[in-house]
Amino acid sequence: MKSILIAGGTGFIGYHLSKKCIKMGWKVTSISSKKPKKKRKIKKVIYVTCSLVNKKNIYKKIRKNYDYVVNLSGHVDHKNKTKTLNSHYKLVKNLVEFFISRNKPIKKFIQMGSSAEYGGLTKPQKETAKCVAKSFYGKAKLASTRYLIKQHKLKKFPVTIFRLYQAYGPNQDINRLIPIVINACKRNQDFNCSDGDQFRDFVYIDDIVNAIIKSIKIKNQEGQIFNLGSGKALQVKKIISTISNFFKGGKPLYGKIKLRKDESKIIYANINKIKNNLKWKPQVKFKNGLKRTMNFYKENNEI
Hints:
There is one protein chain. By secondary structure, this protein is of the alpha/beta class. The protein has 2 domains: 3-166 and 202-228, Rossmann fold; 169-201 and 231-267 and 276-300, UDP-galactose 4-epimerase, domain 1. The protein is built from 9 helices and 13 strands. A 7-stranded parallel sheet has the order 3-2-1-4-5-6-11, sandwiched between helices. The protein has a two-stranded parallel sheet with strand order 7-10. Helix 1 (12-23) packs across helix 6, helix 3 packs parallel to helix 4 (136-155) and helix 5 (177-186) runs parallel beside helix 7. The longest helix is centred in the first third of the chain and has 21 residues, at 81-101. The chain starts with a strand and ends with a helix.
């Protein structure tokens, strides 16, 4: 039986990844600073609760050997510089130092990075582009990427890094664009939003999980960085309109939220590398993924 440790396993991606691994017959341990929400608790998953920012916690709480480690953890609110740096960089460093120090090495360490590492300089963004991260979050993620690549070169640490774009799907918290809009439209509420003229790259949760599993199974891809997106730029205003029409409600107040100074108008991925190296490409078209997501919230009354 394969064993996997998912840091941040109680979150949106962690929940779906845990379900997939359990289905494959793997032994799954989640370690997170929070207990799982009732709707995301999975029977066969072992849940460990602690903050990984404190290195002592890692040595106390992680006692078993694991085949694979996936890091999905990180503070959601990126406005606080210290919390963002600690949860997206210091935490990574703590985990890596711990697993390097163990007698039995892990086979793979998967790091979930971010498209924010690019700083919005190129479109479509390519892994070989020079990164000039602007936000606290982007800088912390980029620092982690550079540290991990260095550890791979110096100590052959078996890391693979994904630069994730806009994740979406069922059971996501109301802190991202699509669930925020669904929530407002379902309740027929007015809601503040940007002008909606920006373009973003959205990737469905099942495709994200499949990319992670592929990176674990495929050999000789350690030390690599892959964009994890759809490779397509979609206009935010059209997405909002589609959701509003589906629920027959909600009034978007365009222009009430201003784009950040460090935020680019068009952000989307070049996904040639992940297609070639991992034989991965998105299987779920956006219109189908969005429909699944809206139906989930409609039928389950989750929002």
